[in-house]
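Technical note accompanying the year-one report. For the benefit of new consortium partners, we illustrate the data format agreed upon in the data management plan: each record pairs a sequence with a structure-token string. No post-processing was applied to the example shown here.
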Amino acid sequence: MLFQRCVLEDLFQLVEQFHGKNFWEAFCHCVDYTHFSGASEYEIYFNFFLLRSFSLPYLRSLRWEGINNLKDLEGYKQRDFDFVHSHWTTRVEL
């Protein structure tokens, strides 16, 4: 995911004004550590981006898959997937 400096600067300024502390301190303070994932910087950025109505040319669907075995990766390359992920909690060791 690409980030735009002006969006991050706007986000950081807004959070720092609201919380009265550096962005990273506010972020760490607000993370709910009782949930497995805690927080997603990408979700925060994307939703802030949409909320603030920055120019967004278009959203497009990507062809992707979650795999458990990295040996299968080449097959996904040949079938023209946009991306493939393999989370460490479900990954089978090579």
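Partners are asked to follow this layout when depositing records. The mean pLDDT is 84.
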